Amino acid sequence: MDIEARIKRRQRRNGEPRLIQDYESISPIVHIEEPADRGPVLERLLDHLDPVFDGQLPPNAYVYGPRGSGKSAVITALFANLEQLPTEQQAIIHTTTRAQPPTSPSFVYVNARETASEFAFYHAVLDSLVDDSVPEHGIGTETLKSRLHELVREQRTGIVIAVDHISEPESIQAPALVDLFAGLPSNVSWLAIGRDDPSTTELTRYTAESISIDRYQRQMLVDVLMTRASNGLAQQGLDHSLARHIADWADGNAHDALAALFIAAEFAEEQSQNRITQANVDAAIAEVPDPCVSLGVVLSLPTNRQAVLRELIDLEESERSSVTATTEAIASVESVDLSAGTVKRFLYEMAESGVVDRVEATVTNGQGRPPSRVEPRFPATAFRRLYDLQQ
């Protein structure tokens, strides 16, 4: 940890000892600059990207692995560093003019969870390449696409685009991504990152290589947890034995392991403890659904849907006895500012995408089919805190 990070940790204490020094460091939706124990994976990715160090574009590739295997953590860290490499050699890219041509490709990371539409995708790419923010309103998709085409053609050494979270329910699907890339000039190389096996995705028809990222091994995941705890918690806030316990339970899934750590720390903080206990960890593990939807997915939803979920997790049991009861309870909250019909539609849509489950209610009046209710497929405590921190 660097000096600046140490100073920030002490600033956050506000004069009182606290277990959680930095929420961001233990957050399951935040990737740290140096992923722990991922050297071999980074080397495989650098082998593929090696042409960029000679000012050439690498071929297209598909990076795949199971949920929680650290794909996003590795790719975001790698691209953040690669973006810095050409800065001493190339001029800043502008939408119209450039002082001198770059000698290395540019690197762009796109989160497909947040850019599912054609407009959003091209906007994200263009916004990453220019100095000034690209307007989100008052500009059409074709105009945006035309400006991006012009800029990419000017970028003679090309652009490498990584598109993460492909083919998830709320993100860009593989066929749509192929069409988006087909609409770009030829001096664009891409990495698509997803969970599907290479034999089952259309993307591999257009790639030269498929790069597998395996689940974390147990000791790797322990190192991840201890690194995050060291950065985000008070000294000795997490015992090594508890990190091993979480890692054993998570079975190589870093998202679920970090979610359990985050929740356990929150439980301990609520009790004014200076260390996480076994009881905290057991309670946290019990709260993580199996299977669990990534908190990154939930926090990438539109703001109004997140607001509905925020109210959902705080409802009394009687208010969650049926979809109708839940809808009425959420719609009655003034801050939500949505009609009952809209709330119900959002709940059904999120059930279809897997963010919540529709389950048969246990209480029935004995007539007809029992009503259904909705249950979140994500840990409520972690979502509550992360959502509130963003407000």
UniProtKB/TrEMBL annotation:
Q: Which SUPFAM superfamilies does UniProt cross-reference here?
A: P-loop containing nucleoside triphosphate hydrolases
Cite the Gene3D superfamilies for this sequence. Answer: 1.10.8.60, P-loop containing nucleotide triphosphate hydrolases
Gene Ontology BP, a term: DNA replication
Q: Which domain of life is it from?
A: Archaea
Domain Cdc6 AAA+ ATPase-type lid: from-to ranges: 223-284
InterPro entries assigned to the protein according to its UniProt record, in alphabetical order: AAA_16 (IPR041664), Cdc6_lid (IPR055237), ORC1/CDC6 (IPR050311), P-loop_NTPase (IPR027417)
Where is the Orc1-like AAA ATPase domain positioned along the sequence? 38-185
A molecular function GO annotation: ATP binding
One Pfam assignment: Cdc6_lid
Q: Which UniProt keywords apply?
A: ATP-binding, DNA replication, Nucleotide-binding
Family matches, as PANTHER family? CELL DIVISION CONTROL PROTEIN 6-RELATED, ORC1-TYPE DNA REPLICATION PROTEIN
What name is this protein filed under?
ATP-binding protein
